[in-house]
Design a protein that fits this description.
mainly beta, 7-stranded mixed β-sheet, 4-stranded antiparallel β-sheet, 11 strands, globular
Amino acid sequence: QVQLVESGGGLVQPGGSLRLSCAVSRNILSLNAVAWHRQAPEKERELVALIFKRGGTKYSDSVKDRFTISRDDARNTVYLQMNNLKLEDTAVYYCYAVNWGSEYWGQGTEVTVSL
């Protein structure tokens, strides 16, 4: 079993920045990948960014060049640095981990981008 605990959400103005953190309850290098998803009101959950075990990353087109996923292996923590936030980035952001077909989700942290 893997527990994921997100933090760092909040209210920010357009153009601002936030950094989300996902604390993982086990050695993140033992997982196939860790990712951030988000779900906006009345929309389906979507993948935002993913980091593979070997360090490769993947981003959705909507956040590419604005968001950066990274990890601190010593702290078993994955981060999502979000810059130049837009109104449409408003959503609940979920940390996700996958390991040989087993999937794990955090409880989510809310990000609101508003004037």
